[in-house]
Amino acid sequence: ATGAAPGADVLDNLRASIAGASDPSQPFAVAAFAQRYFTLAAQVAVDPRYRFGDVQAAVGTLLRAAFGFEARDLGQSVTAAELVALIHTVPGVVAVDITALAPYPQAAAAAGTVPAFGARIDAASGGPQPAELLLINPAGIALTGMTP
Length: 148
Hints:
Layout: H1 8-21, E1 34-46, H2 52-66, E2 78-79, H3 80-87, E3 93-104, E4 113-114, E5 120-121, E6 128-129, E7 132-146
Parallel strand pairs: 1-7
Antiparallel strand pairs: 1-3, 2-4, 5-6
């Protein structure tokens, strides 16, 4: 359809398929997910046998892949512990200190978790709320060096 939102045909086809195969007395709703982002600031101590810039680039690449669209599930939150464990897999990383973890565009603050929610009913309106897909903001990764 002209002027329709991207993916509208997919949602229309899904609605039609579910309606054709379901009990007509059971209502259902189909909606797109809500895409959200988070930002991260961390200090990384690097083994002196490695160049900080190389390790910094490898960590950034790994974070973008691990917290990108293809790697995340709907309603999957992000924790500081998950980030630290992942960053420690990069060769040359000796220590990691997460200094800020926050939903984007909120101001970055120290936090242990950025929550993402599955599909749910809004208590105030009684209407459905879409599941959230939480991704890293590629421009919101700040990695600085620190001494171990």
